[in-house]
Design goal:
Layout lengths: L2 H20 L10 H8 L13 H21 L14 E5 L7 H6 L3 E6 L2 H10 L8 E5 L2 H5 L8 E7 L8 H11 E12 L3 H14 L16 H10 L2 E12 L4 E5 L5 E8 L1
Parallel strand pairs: 1-2, 1-4, 2-3, 4-5
Antiparallel strand pairs: 5-8, 6-7, 6-8
C-alpha cells in the first residue's frame, strides 16, 4: 500500500467519524457561504456545454427522463405527449443557470428555479426563451426563506435538488424543509455523491486535479453522504424512498449511465407520506 493511499484512507476514516455528527449541529441555514462564493465565480459559465459544467449538461440525458417517468407514473394530470408534465408544479433547488429548469419547463411543467447565488439567477433569467416566460420563473432565495412564504407551503408536485446536497451544511433540515413545500404524495429527486474511497479518488482527486472535469475545490468530501444515511434522513422527515440507483460517468465520452454501483454517484426518488 502506497503512502498516498494510506494517508488518504486515514484522512477519510477521520472525516467519516465526524461527518454525520457534524450534520446534526443546529445551523440557521443549510447554505454554506464559501460555496456561494465559489459558484459566484463560475456564474457566467453555466451555458457553455464544453466548459466547467459539461458533465452537468450531459447528466440531463439521464436525470430528465428519470424525473419525467417517475412523475408520469405518479400523476394523472396530463396525457399530452408533447407537454407530458403540463399542470405540474416543480421546484428546482440550486438551479444555477437553469440548465435543468429550462428543459423541464419545455416538457410543460410550471417550474420555479431558486438559487442562493444572485449571479446564477441573472444568468438563468437572461437565457430563458420567450416561449417559456409563462411557466418558468427564477428567484434569488434560499430554501429556508422560501419556506417562510405561506404561498409555497405544500405547493409543489415535485422538488429537485440535483448535485446540491453535497454543497450544503445541514441535510436533515434541508429535507425537512422540502417536505414542507411538497404536496402530500409529492416527489423529491436528489442526485449526489457517495462518501467512499472511490468518490474521494475519482470524484475529487481525478475529477478536480487530474482530468479537471470541474474546477479544483468544487467538492468537499466530508459533505458527501452515504445512501444509507440519506435514506435514514428521508424516513425521519416523513418520506418513503421509492428508488435508489447508482450512476456512472465516463469522462472520455462525457456520457452518464445507470448502474447498480453506487460507490461514486447515485440518485434517489422519495415520496412524501
Amino acid at each position: 500500500m502506497s503512502s498516498l493511499y494510506r494517508s488518504s484512507f486515514s484522512m477519510i476514516s477521520r472525516f467519516r467519524t465526524i461527518t454525520f455528527l457534524s450534520r446534526q449541529l443546529s445551523v440557521r441555514s443549510s447554505v454554506d457561504p464559501d460555496e456561494i462564493n465559489r459558484f459566484r465565480q463560475l456564474s457566467s459559465s453555466w451555458w457553455n456545454e464544453t466548459g466547467e459544467y459539461a458533465a452537468l449538461h450531459s447528466l440531463n440525458q439521464l436525470r430528465i427522463p428519470f424525473i419525467r417517468e417517475q412523475l408520469l407514473q405518479s400523476s394523472t394530470k396530463t396525457n399530452d405527449s408533447r407537454k407530458p408534465l403540463n399542470g405540474l408544479q416543480l421546484l428546482d433547488i440550486g438551479c444555477g443557470g437553469g440548465i435543468l429548469s429550462e428543459p423541464l419547463a419545455r416538457l410543460g411543467a410550471s417550474v420555479l428555479g431558486i438559487d442562493a447565488v444572485s449571479e446564477n439567477i441573472s444568468t438563468a433569467q437572461y437565457h430563458t426563451e420567450p416561449a417559456l416566460k409563462h411557466n418558468l420563473n427564477y428567484k434569488h432565495v434560499t430554501l429556508e426563506e422560501l419556506c417562510e412564504n405561506v404561498e409555497h407551503i405544500e405547493k409543489y408536485d415535485a422538488i429537485i435538488a440535483s448535485e446540491v446536497i453535497e454543497h450544503i451544511n445541514d441535510v436533515d433540515s434541508f429535507i425537512g424543509n422540502i417536505g414542507k413545500l411538497l404536496k402530500p404524495k409529492g416527489l423529491c429527486f436528489i442526485t449526489t455523491l457517495n462518501q467512499t474511497m472511490a468518490s474521494y479518488l475519482f470524484g475529487i482527486i481525478a475529477a478536480e486535479y487530474i482530468l479537471r472535469i470541474v474546477p479544483a475545490g468544487t467538492h468537499s468530501w466530508n459533505k458527501f453522504i452515504r445512501p444509507s444515511d440519506l435514506l435514514v434522513l428521508f424516513e425521519k422527515n416523513g418520506f418513503s424512498v421509492l428508488l435508489n440507483n447508482g450512476m456512472l460517468y465516463n469522462p472520455i465520452t462525457n456520457r452518464w449511465s445507470w448502474s447498480t454501483n453506487k460507490a461514486i454517484n447515485y440518485a434517489v426518488c422519495a415520496a412524501k407520506n
